[in-house]
Amino acid sequence: MKTPPSRSRKSKTKFGELPQILQNNRGTAYMNFRGRRFYLGKFGSIEAEQERLRIIAEYDASASVTPVTVRRQPVTVAILVYAFLKWAKTHYVKHGRSTQSAERFGYSAQPLLELYADLPVTEFRPLALKAVRERMIAAGLCRKVVNQRIGFVKQIFKWGVGEEMVPPEIKAALYDVAGLREGETTAVDYPDIESVDMETVEKTLKHCHPVLADMVRIQMYGGMRPQDVCNMRLCDIDRMEDVWEYTPWEHKTEHHGTKGRLKTGKNKVVRWLGPKAQEILEVYLVAKEGTPTAYLFSPSDAMRLIQTEKRWNRKSKVQPSQTDRAKEHPMIKPGEKYKTGSYRNAIKRAAKKAGVEEWSPNRLRHTWATFVEEKYGPEEARIILGHRNVGTTQIYIDGERDRTRAREVARKIG
């Protein structure tokens, strides 16, 4: 049995290398960095490696990765990944905060670090990339996600070429690795996102909190993405006309510019709110009249509503000690806006209670696109969804409608 290193052992970090991960007598990983000891979690785990990179990033140690370092010390995969994630955290920024793109690169780099953290980038060849891909498949990721994450790994090495950390021929060889094709791999294939049946939605809403149910209806009536309904504010809604114009202060594709989209003075896409949506929003607009920049749908407001409802439904008399049992400084406080993840999870929990299939709010946009296209036409559906061209809108149209028409034609001519 291998004896763990003693606690007094010191690691000497050479120029251009990351601090070594050591193990104490309890099997906990740690590293000595800048005169301090940092505990990283379970020794040998990928979490320990990620914690090491995170701590170094917080201390802004990227100055050690320079062209001088490349000439004096071989750059390993771990150094390349760390340097890229450090750059991505400041590059993929929207409205002053990191976007999910930086997180996706981190997820994609996990199996890469598990297998080849200490391998020099000059030795990382296509077979190594395929081994990383097999690790992703073994983890249960579907084919499309595997292809996407392998694409992110390639981008990391492409970035390294521009920083003179990766030889161009290494990047070129990695880009010759073709993606997984449907039916030619053991990776699972999930069906494309389709619309959700309205009967399923109505059954789910019966088990939703009133605030959550209103969010679902507003998202559907406006043909919005989940992000749009979570970010709704009073100051972003123009109520001058009979149909209100909601201009999200941020949206999914704003980094692509606004060419070909419906524009306002803020150069943003517009969501159109008709009478049904206006009727739902009236209560929230009145409540936020004095705070126009506050989010209309707030978890803190929903929690207060739940507590009030429980108090009204209470049958026994309230004891003096139970008049207000709220903690003065709770560790976890309800947020001022819903995140798309918590919004999606709340809908799935309600669907599970209703005994129907679990569905995500992204499918509502497909449902509304199908409804508008059938009733008014593809061009109107494109405008409502805010797409640049009809081809993009067609992706959202429910395939079941086409299958039904195909059956009718085959029944008549076959």
Describe the structure.
The protein is mainly alpha-helical and 414 residues long. 49% of the residues lie in helices and 7% in strands. The protein has 17 helices and eight strands. The chain has helices spanning 46-58, 67-72, 77-91, 100-116, 126-138, 143-162, 168-175, 198-205, 210-221, 226-230, 275-287, 299-313, 340-354, 362-375, 378-385, 390-396, 399-413, and strands at residues 22-23, 28-33, 36-42, 93-94, 97-98, 237-238, 244-246, 271-273. The chain has a three-stranded antiparallel beta sheet with strand order 1-2-3, with helices on one face. Strands 6-7-8 form a three-stranded antiparallel beta sheet. Strands 4-5 form a two-stranded antiparallel sheet. β4 and β5 form a beta hairpin. α14 (362-375) runs antiparallel to α15 (378-385). The longest helix is centred in the middle third of the chain and has 20 residues, at 143-162. Residues 1-11, 60-72 and 258-267 have low confidence and may be disordered.
Q: What's this entry about, in short?
A:
The protein is built from 17 helices and 8 strands. It is mainly alpha-helical.
